[in-house]
Design goal:
Elements (H helix, E strand, L loop, with lengths): L1 E3 L10 E4 L3 E5 L5 E8 L19 H9 L3 H11 L10 H14 L18 E3 L17 E11 L8 E9 L1 E6 L2 E7 L4 E6 L7 E11 L5 E4 L8 E4 L8 E2 L4 E7 L16 E6 L6 E9 L4 E8 L2 E10 L4 E8 L5 E8 L4 E8 L2 E7 L6 E11 L2 E5 L2 E7 L1 E10 L11 H12 L4 H16 L3 E3 L10 H7 L6 H18 L30 E2 L3 H5 L1 H5 L7 H22 L9 E2 L11 H4 L4 H16 L2 H22 L1 E2 L6 E2 L3 E3 L2 E5 L3 H21 L3 H10 L49 H14 L5 H13 L3 H11 L4 E2 L2 E2 L3 E2 L5 E2 L6 H14 E2 L5 E3 L10 E8 L3 E8 L2 E9 L5 E5 L2 E5 L6 E5 L6
Parallel strand pairs: 40-44
Antiparallel strand pairs: 1-17, 2-3, 3-4, 4-16, 5-15, 6-11, 6-15, 7-10, 7-12, 7-13, 8-9, 8-11, 13-14, 16-21, 17-18, 18-19, 19-20, 20-27, 21-26, 22-23, 23-24, 24-27, 25-26, 28-41, 29-30, 31-32, 33-34, 35-36, 37-38, 39-40, 41-42, 42-43, 43-46, 44-45
């Protein structure tokens, strides 16, 4: 249970619900409740080709420049000719120039907002800075040109002196005027705007400042600085900002033009759908308030006492019903009175009446092919329902149930011919005639069929009685082992809520960078699928934590990504097979994006193929291996057969061009690539042997495998991240990509390569414990594989560090709703953290199933039931006083089983469906 004594004020305090396609964030306000909601297929963009035809002709020169040590030249060449295609790239420049000329023309007009005498009293106000952009001030999605006006009072003592006007950082371009004269202009978020104003332009007393801010895409406005120095001040040239006078707050602003031409984009962004608002009048002061999320039933609840009435609201996202449901009750009759409205951050939205109990929200994504429709239907016991304009009005009811549905015209990554009304209207046909208690029961049955497959108890403490946000604050100071249990189960809850197998024709999408929850039109990193770790980390818990079915949306996506990846492999590398670079989206773009110093990374296909093999290892599903996994795996391997080249210095086969994700720029031969490729080749060899097929390809892979550049130990005793020994021991970069072979890979193990394991451990020690949320989560898994449970537990403490603390914002950690803080929110840390806790208790990446391999001293006693191991095994493990007390092993596939605990090991032959029990000494019971 997550629970709180107050409503959510911020999105990262709201509680998430989801059914794999619909997601909602429950704020739980007393007088004004808010449910922000999403639908998995509402994205920007449209079906299109992402690859740049002819890019392969530049590949030899890029490789040559890298071989000659000319990294900068290689990156320039690649940026110009090797990156994927963007939307609107052919028409953008003339469109931008024409629009820019139009919005700038106003500055020279007779009545210009820059003029001293201009009257701005009708303009709205905004307090600046807005660190997260003006989007957080109610201007979500605003791109274009915005004028601001303010002033400052110049002291008499400064007469005749030049002054500095400090505006901090601005997204993205500004034209700044003082007393009607242009005094400065600049572009780019990285530049602090400090403009020196000649004394001749100033006057003692009031001086007028006008600023035209132009932001063509993403966040806009004044974002301040990341230091404690004053911003929005004027001070004498040569003195300190602290000696200055402030610009008057709030600024007044006017939106001049919010329709700039569509900026070129490499990939699409996941979009919010809309907002449901419930407004309750006259309830008076609420007491005994409680807001909670029961992850055992996937139901959120708000309860409080107001005016002598006890009110209860329940919220759930039903997979059987394909709707979000909200049920409102009171302990006295006739007390349910409220208004319900829908709106959306999309500029092109409308709300209409459908019937006397239903309203509908229609949205159109800007500059994109997708549109959506949402229905809000209400049922009551007694009371009155009316539709007033675009809102539902409920008065005097004993209870009320709201059903919220949504759908889009998305049919596939190549087809947007669907009817949005179908997915929004179809569920209501059943729900109109179904009581809430029946909908609730069906929801719980379906959800618990997945969720109840695993349970754990890691110990208890008094902290369990505290609200969840308080538990986070206290975790560093007071033992709270059950918070780990909650976190692991919360990870399972989030995966079930964001990634559920499709049913009855309903499309299933994988969990994206924020799962299924996003409230921004321009979310961080597009809320996409970042495939150099984030997408994959989302699914680390799937097999091990007994949620194998949740893997299915990822597998469906991989099958489609492989189709578009073939085009990219041919166009960019003239290679067979398929390739995936470091990001993809709803439309399955696979080409390099953004910048050549990090966007050209070829390992995505190998990494997602690892998940296909893992699913087979855990399930032993031969049909899945034959019909779905191996055909994709072998084509991913064919790409690398063609792509790998011999390094002229070492003679090894290397991956070039590529990079060690987001670190060190474009290079030849990053260690991570070679670990991934070896893993892919090894798994393809094993799969082809199992299936008795593709002997010729198997021989090719077996021949190439030992020729791939090996893992190397460098001069600092570290595992080298790159082909040359160039690691910096003081480097604390958040990515630790060259340790992929430790986790989730199996390239480096204590059993087979202990020296490399020690070198990898040295690398992680040098990289340090700090990191962003997902980075902290990955490090938990590393330390578990290093069999250092206490260090893994230390990393958990950092992951549980409050991202919003009484002292203000921190770095990576957890938000009050336990969402992972990069910051901002990324859900991969939740899944990586859940995986890391499991890795402390069980590991099966090698030839044995290792029991309690990294049990921390802080968790001396506990049990877990339903934990899965490779080979098709489900284990119940018990331990006391830091030692194994017993284990039950259920065999699902009849494979041989080797258990290991410390220095003890036992091997048994199993039969499918049988359970085998052992004591703490691994003696059969």
């Amino acid at each position: 249970m997550l629970w709180y004594r107050q409503p959510a004020k911020q999105w990262v305090e709201a509680l998430p619900i989801g059914n794999g396609r619909l997601g909602g964030m429950v704020f739980g306000g007393v007088e004004n409740d808010h449910i922000q909601f999403n639908e998995a297929t509402l994205w920007t963009g449209e079906p299109r080709e992402y690859q740049r035809e002819g890019a392969a002709q530049y590949l030899p020169n890029i490789r040559r420049l890298l071989a000659e040590g000319k990294q900068a030249e290689a990156e320039v060449l690649a940026q110009a000719n090797f990156m994927g295609r963007q939307t609107n790239e052919a028409n953008y420049v003339p469109q931008k120039e024409a629009w820019f000329a139009k919005v700038r023309k106003l500055a020279d007009a007779t009545v210009s907002p820059a003029a001293v005498a201009f009257e701005e009293r009708t303009w709205k106000t905004m307090a600046v800075p807005t660190a997260d952009g003006w989007e957080r001030t109610g201007l979500e999605g605003l791109d274009g040109a915005v004028w601001f006006r303010t002033s400052f009072d110049l002291p008499q003592a400064w007469a005749g002196k030049d002054v500095v006007l400090d505006l901090g950082r601005i997204r993205d371009q500004d034209f700044t005027y003082l007393n009607g004269k242009l005094v400065g202009t600049s572009e780019g978020i990285a530049k602090n705007r400090r403009y020196t104003i000649p004394a001749a332009h100033l006057r003692v007393g009031t001086n007028q400042v006008a600023i035209q801010v132009i932001n063509l895409f993403d966040k806009g406005g004044f974002i301040g600085v990341k230091t404690n120095q004053p911003t929005f001040v004027v001070y004498p040239d040569g003195q300190k900002p602290a000696d200055g006078v402030p610009l008057k707050q709030p600024f007044r602003y006017w939106i001049q033009d919010d329709d700039p031409p569509a900026s070129p984009r490499y990939q699409a962004d996941y979009q919010p759908f809309g907002d449901l608002w419930l407004r309750f009048n006259g309830q008076g002061q609420a007491t005994n308030y409680r807001r909670e999320l029961a992850i055992s039933t996937a139901i959120s609840r708000v309860t409080y006492l107001a005016s002598g009435v006890h009110f209860t609201r329940e919220y759930l996202a039903s997979a059987p019903g394909q709707a979000i449901a909200i049920h409102l009750t009171a302990d006295k009759p006739g007390k349910i009175t409220f208004d319900a409205t829908l709106d959306s951050p999309h500029k092109a939205y409308s709300v209409r009446k459908v019937d006397k109990q239903t309203i509908a929200l229609s949205v159109q994504v800007r500059n994109g092919a997708l549109r959506g429709e949402s229905m809000l239907h209400i049922q009551t016991q007694k009371g009155q329902i009316t539709v007033s304009g675009d809102k539902l009005v409920i008065s005097g009811a004993d209870e009320a149930t709201l059903y919220l549905t949504a759908g889009t015209n998305f049919k596939s990554y190549k087809d947007v011919s669907g009817d949005p009304a179908v997915l929004s209207q179809r569920p209501l046909q059943m729900l109109r005639t179904q009581r809430f208690d029946a909908s609730r029961a069906a929801h719980i049955r379906e959800y618990q069929a997945y969720f109840n497959t695993l349970s754990l108890d890691l110990g208890h403490s008094a902290s369990e009685q505290l609200p969840t946000d308080v538990r986070l604050q206290q975790f560093e100071k007071a033992a709270d082992p059950s918070l780990l249990s909650l976190y692991l189960q919360y990870g399972r809850y989030l995966l079930l809520s964001a990634s559920r197998p499709g049913r009855n024709g309903v499309l299933a999408q994988p969990a994206n960078l924020q799962g299924i929850w996003n409230d921004l039109l321009t979310p961080p990193w597009g809320s996409k699928y970042t495939t150099n770790i984030n997408l994959e980390m989302n699914y680390w818990p799937a097999e091990m934590l007994n949620l194998s079915a949740c893997h299915e949306p990822m597998f469906q996506a991989i099958e489609e990504i492989a189709e578009s990846g073939r085009k990219t492999a041919k166009a960019h590398y003239n290679a067979r097979g398929w390739v995936l670079h470091h990001n993809t989206d709803l439309w399955h773009g696979t080409a390099p994006i953004n910048a050549s110093n990090h966007g050209i990374w070829v390992g995505g296909g190998a990494w997602v193929a690892h998940h296909l093999w893992d699913h087979y290892r855990y399930t032993q599903d031969q049909a899945f291996l034959k019909n779905r996994a191996y055909p994709i795996m072998k084509e991913a391997a064919r790409f690398f057969v063609d792509f790998l080249v011999k390094d002229p210095k070492t003679g090894w086969l290397i991956s070039t061009p590529s990079n060690s994700p987001e670190h060190g720029g474009l290079v030849a031969g990053p260690t991570m690539d070679h670990q991934l490729i070896r893993d892919l080749f090894k798994n393809c060899i094993a799969a082809s042997e199992t299936l008795g097929t593709d002997a010729a390809l198997r021989d090719t892979l077996q021949t190439m495998y030992p020729q791939i550049a090996p893992n190397q130990i460098g001069k600092h005793g570290q595992l080298q991240e790159w082909l040359p020994d160039s690691d910096d021991p003081k480097d604390t970069h958040r990515h630790v990509s060259h340790l992929w072979g430790v986790h989730p890979g199996t390239d480096i193990t204590w059993d087979d390569t202990p020296d490399l394991m020690k070198a990898a451990r040295q690398s992680l020690l040098e990289r340090g414990d700090e990191g962003t949320g997902w980075s902290l989560a990955w490090k938990i898994n590393f330390w578990a594989r290093f069999r250092d449970g206490d260090h893994a537990y230390t990393m958990l403490k950092l992951l549980f560090r409050p991202a919003i603390s009484p002292e203000g914002l921190t770095g990576g950690g957890s938000y009050p709703n336990l969402f992972d803080a990069h910051p901002p929110f990324q859900i991969d840390g939740n899944f990586g953290g859940a995986s890391g806790i499991a890795e402390m208790l069980l590991q099966s990446q090698g030839k044995t199933i290792d029991l309690l391999p990294a049990l921390p001293a802080a968790l001396p006693t506990g049990h877990i039931n339903g934990l899965c191991a490779a080979g098709g095994f489900v284990l119940n493990i018990r331990w006391q006083n830091g030692k194994l007390a017993g284990v039950d092993v259920t065999s699902k596939a009849g494979q041989p089983c080797t258990l290991r605990y410390g220095g003890k090991q036992v091997r048994i032959t199993t039969a499918a469906g049988n359970t085998y029990r052992f004591d703490g000494e691994l003696q059969v019971l």
